Amino acid sequence: MKKVSRDTPLSELTLRKYEKPGNVRDRELAKKICLSLGLLQPGDSRDVVTDVLLVLLKAKQKKEWLTSSEIEGRVISSRKRYRAQLAGIASSNIRRQIKRIRALLLVEKLKNHYRIVEFDSLRKLFAEKVELFLLNSILSRVNEYLDEADKVFSAKRKKKKKR
After folding, report:
1. Are 54 and 67 in a shared domain?
2. Residue 110, domain member (yes or no)
3. Per-residue pLDDT for the chain (163 aa), expressed as one digit of tens each?
4. Residue 116 β-bridge partners
5. 3-state secondary structure of 131
6. Do 48 and 94 contact (CB within 8 A), yes or no?
7. Partners of 110 in the β-ladder
8. Are residues 126 and 77 part of one domain?
9. Nearest 5°: CA angle at 126, between 64 and 30?
């Protein structure tokens, strides 16, 4: 039986470059980080992931571990404070956004409590987790595909004879 190839990625990473940060408010900075890391799409009105990250960053300042319900409550307060729509604030969606940030290895979970990994700096976490781990593994696999394409499509490759 012939093996069916699946086009489901094992891992994916989206990175975007924006203008240098100037004097921006905390929520705008969190939004640019989400956009830069591919957590948020440009022009997306459902930006609750911005508030989830913002809440976790503010908790990091106080070295607080938060449950998903505490994050949810603070996200609602944050969205009211910044006059953002209260769309996407269902607890299931908040948990999904936490999971997306965890997939970038920036947030950890212990006994249903979350925090920015070891209350460390985002720059250090990005360098250690995203650049060295996620990005390198993706680049390595892309290079394997490119090497294979070079072999398959090289000028010296002999063509099979048709019978």
Report:
1. yes
2. yes
3. 566 667 888 888 999 999 999 899 999 999 999 999 999 999 888 899 999 999 999 999 999 999 999 999 999 999 999 999 998 899 999 999 999 999 999 999 999 999 999 999 999 999 999 999 999 999 999 999 999 999 999 877 565 655 5
4. 107
5. helix
6. yes
7. 113
8. no
9. 60
Q: Which residues contact 136 (CB under 8 A, 6 or more apart)?
A: none
- At 157, list the tokens: 């490759």
Residue type, 92: S
Q: Structure tokens of 43?
A: 């022009």
Other C-beta atoms within 10 Å of 146: how many? 10
Which domain does 36 fall in, by range? Answer: 26-119
In a domain, 87, yes or no: yes
CATH of the domain at 43: 1.10.10
Longest Cα–Cα distance in the chain: 74
Q: Is residue 3 part of a domain?
A: no
> Structurally, how many domains does the chain consist of?
2
- Read off the tokens for 73: 């409550």
Pair 67, 77 in one domain? yes
Structure tokens at 53: 């990250």
